[in-house]
Amino acid sequence: MKHITFYLDFISPYAWLAFEKLPEALKGLSYSVTYKPLLFAGLLKHHGQLGPAEIPGKREWTYRQVLWLAHQHGIKLQLPASHPFNPLGLLRLAVACDAHGTPNRYVCETLFRHVWQTGLEAADPQRLAALAASLAPQRALDGADVKAQLQAHSDEAIAQGVFGVPTLAVDGKLFWGLDALPMLRAWLLGDAWFDGPDWDSASQLATGVLRPK
Known about the structure:
Order of helices and strands: EHEHHHHHHEEHH
Number of strands: 4
Helix content: 40-55%
CATH topology: Glutaredoxin
Number of helices: 9
Strand order of the largest sheet: 2-1-3-4
CATH superfamily: Glutaredoxin
Shape: globular
CATH architecture: 3-Layer(aba) Sandwich
Strand content: 5-15%
Structural class: alpha+beta
CATH class: Alpha Beta
Radius of gyration: 18 Å
Largest sheet: 4 strands, mixed
């Protein structure tokens, strides 16, 4: 049985869509999943990037596209009252719900729906307090151990080459985004394409020009 590590941040609508579609995308296959929340902003900072919601034009397109994708896949999605927002409270709550910092699917689903199915402020303190009361985390959200585990997830992801969410890691390979789910399924099924030259050749392509920073 293959094991998948699902790196996510509740701030990402694509992570919500991929989370929701994963069981259907991998239907009939034998696998297990560990969910590891991390701070998407930390990935962006490490790689020197802006998030989609920080770029005019791309921001609007991102919201339109995720609303279309949700419609296309039959997934309820309602944009929160404001976005981006500070997701640390939600991330720490998820980590605090498990002794090892890896929340189960129910916890992740509850947090995703809190953000992407209500149309309300995702980081509102009163809503966060109510959410914490309903999930009854095992540890304090502001505990040093919780903060350390959340950071450890980010450090682990960066060390593997993760640059965005959602990223699903299996057998040393990374599959990024909702549209990578069919590719992930093909890998789990043993598709012969992965034994050919294309996967490795992508990392060997020469860089023709670099823009000045």
